[in-house]
Amino acid sequence: MAVAWLVFVVLHRALSGRVWWWQAAELVPPFALAAVPVALLAVTPAAGRRARRACAAAALVSLTLGWSGSGLNPATLWHHPAPAPPGAIKVFSWNTWYWDQPVTTLMPPPTGTPASDVAAFYRYLRAQDADVLLLQEYVYFGPDSRPIRVHDLARLRREFPGFHLSTAGELVTLSRFPVVQERGIEGGHVPPGAAWPGFHAVKTLRTDLRVAGRTVSFYNTHINSPVATGGLDRWQHEAREANLRALAADIRANPLPAVLAGDFNASPAMGLMRLVPERMIDATPALRSLYPVSWDERRPLLSLWRIDWAYTTRELAVHDYRLVRSHGLSDHSGQRLVLSLNR
Fold it and tell me: Is the peptide bond before 100 cis (omega within 30 degrees of 0)?
C-alpha cells in the first residue's frame, strides 16, 4: 500500500496539469495527499520486520512530495497580519452560482437549503460592504446547459449607487473607485456554433482602478471547470490551460500593483495552478483555517475542496482574508479581503 501510494503521488506530480487524461485523479480531495501517508505511517508497526523500514520510507517520501498539494495551511498558526490602516480596500469575490437564477431550475437543493431568492441575493451582496466586488457567473443556464445572457445592469446600478460597473462575458466587477480602463482577457476556445462566443472566450475581466492616487489592476477570473457536461475530456483541459496562460501573460506584462481573485476551479492538488505567475503572492496564510475549503457549500459533509483563490502583488498588504458562507445562495463560499497599498 505504501509503495502503491508513492507511485500514485510521483505520477501525480509528473502528470497533473500537463495531460488531460489525469484529470480524474486530480479530483481527489487534497487532504488525502497528507492523510494517506500519515495513516500508512501509523500502521507501519503492524508490518513485518523487514517491511517496516521500506513502508516508513515510502510513506515519508510520498508525504514530502504531496504536502504542497494537500491544501493544509499551517501558516495560520503563526501568521498574524498587521491591522488594517484607515482607508483600507475591502474586496469581495464570489461565484454567484448562475447569478440569481432559482436553484430549483438547476437541480433540486438538499433538504433544508432554501431556493435562491432575488432580494436575498442583493441583500447578501450589499451586506459585504465591499469597495470592490468581483462576481462570477453573471449568466443563466438553460436545461440543455446553454449559457443565457443576464440583463441586470439597471438593477445593479440601483442596488449599488455611485459604483462603477464593468462587465465581460460572465464576469461583473463593481467598484467605488474610478475605472481607468477595463477589458476582457481572451484565451479560451469557442465551441463551433456557440451562440455567445464571449462566454467561452473571456474568463478573466481586468479592471484598472484609481485607488488613493495610484492605479491598481483587479483581475476577476473564472477558469473553466475540469468536468464538462459530458465528463472529462481533452477540450476542457485545453480550455482551462488556455485561459490560465492568457491571464498569466497579461499579469507578467503588467507593471501595476495587482489583485487576482475568483473561481479557478482548481484545488491545491491540481498542477494547473503552476501557471499562476510567481509575481502573484498567495493570500492563503492570512486565512484563519488549517484546511480552508470553499466548495461545495450545499453538502457540508462533502465540502472538501478549495477552488476559490486570491493573490496580490508585493505592493499590496493583506490585513484580513476570510471565506464567507453564502447561506444557500451559491455552492461557493465568498472571499472577503482587506488590503492596503504599501507606501
Answer: no
E strand or H helix that includes residue 164: strand 164-168
> How far is 114 from 293, CA to CA, in rounded Å?
21
Q: Quick check: helix, strand or coil at residue 108?
A: coil
Question: Which residues on neighbouring strands pair with residue 175, listed in sequence order?
Answer: 132, 164
Rounded Cα–Cα distance for residues 297 and 305 (Å): 10
Model pLDDT for residues 284-305, shown as the tens digit of each residue: 999 999 999 999 998 888 899 9
The grid coordinates listed for 313 are: 502583488
Distance CA 247, CA 272 (A): 13
In contact, 199 and 170? CB cutoff 8 Å: yes
- Residue 18 has a CB neighbour count (10 Å cut-off) of 12
Number of Cα atoms under 13 Å in the Cβ half of residue 162: 5
User: Residue 217 to residues 115, 146, 164, 275: CA-CA distances in angstroms?
Assistant: 35, 31, 14, 19
The pTM assigned to this predicted structure is 0.94
